[in-house]
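$ ./design --mode recover --in tokens.txt
reading tokens...
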């Protein structure tokens, strides 16, 4: 009865996409009491006074401490990014499950704003599956940066479709090829007003007037494929001392300590590094550091390297 009432109440809400800390759906908390009979059943049957039971008890205490830290309710809600399982499923097996449109649009199309106002097309992380939204003002489209879609062309495509019922569609190979961004050889800035923002993938913080910081142990850059080998130059500066490994297509392109005020990092990009028309260059940062751990600062980002720009060579 408890389960039936909760399922009915949850299905009646107009706000399916709501979150707790750090990213669990708020409605999942309603179902925690359903585990109590199982826990009581296990507690009555585990030989707690014997070595296996003591080991299990110690593990339970450890996991309890981890849960208290990870799910501290004083943390901010997080419901604008997909879970790891959802991201893996929608990237590798998107046809297996179509999430409720509100959940898909906000977690894959709203970015950090939480708003999908004016968004009429949301492309999923596989760059093929898309959600058409029944909106009156179909002025914008949203797509992951790694897809390297020209948003102006994507917006024009959505406007050309006109009013549509909310539904999932598959973007064909010919269409995606026509929507791809073309990056001409030249220099690009990654500051807030620069033209190099298209290359920034996961692992980068917000763009600032001078450029952008990496945030975490990895930061990805995405570039359009080219028919022949070309050179990529990255204008990087380390935060504190940093050892860096740069990979593309599973190959190590550069490895070592990143010097402060050193020359641009030069990388040779081969056509073999392409995957689905995109070259992904990943920066593996050995010691990302929180400024708050070094002194009086409220900055809790895990800074590693600063990228002020890059150059696509011939």
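writing sequence...
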């Amino acid at each position: 009865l408890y389960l039936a009432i909760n399922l009915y109440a949850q299905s009646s809400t107009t706000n399916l996409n709501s979150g707790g800390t750090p990213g669990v759906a708020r409605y999942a908390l309603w179902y925690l009491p359903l585990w109590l009979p199982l826990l009581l059943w296990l507690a009555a049957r585990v030989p707690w006074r014997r070595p296996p039971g003591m080991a299990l008890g110690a593990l339970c205490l450890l996991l309890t401490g981890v849960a208290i830290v990870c799910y501290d309710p004083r943390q901010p809600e997080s419901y604008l990014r997909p879970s790891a399982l959802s991201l893996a499923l929608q990237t590798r097996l998107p046809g297996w499950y179509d999430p409720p449109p509100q959940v898909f649009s906000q977690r894959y199309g709203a970015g950090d704003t939480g708003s999908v106002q004016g968004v009429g097309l949301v492309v999923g992380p596989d760059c093929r599956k898309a959600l058409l939204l029944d909106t009156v003002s179909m002025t914008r489209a949203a797509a992951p940066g790694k897809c390297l879609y020209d948003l102006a062309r994507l917006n024009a495509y959505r406007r050309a479709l006109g009013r549509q019922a909310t539904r999932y569609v598959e973007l064909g190979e010919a269409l995606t090829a026509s929507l791809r961004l073309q990056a001409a050889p030249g220099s690009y800035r990654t500051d807030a007003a620069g033209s190099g923002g298209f290359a920034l993938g996961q692992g980068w913080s917000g763009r600032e007037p001078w450029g952008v910081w990496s945030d975490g142990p990895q930061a990805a850059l995405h570039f359009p494929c080219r028919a022949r080998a070309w050179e990529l130059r990255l204008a990087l500066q380390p935060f504190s001392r940093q050892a860096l490994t740069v990979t593309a297509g599973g190959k190590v392109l550069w490895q070592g300590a990143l010097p402060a005020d050193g020359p641009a990092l030069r990388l040779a990009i081969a056509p073999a590094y392409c995957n689905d028309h995109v070259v992904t260059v990943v920066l593996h940062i050995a010691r990302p550091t929180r400024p708050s751990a070094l002194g009086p600062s409220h900055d809790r980002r895990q800074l590693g390297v600063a990228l002020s720009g890059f150059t696509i060579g011939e």
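exit 0
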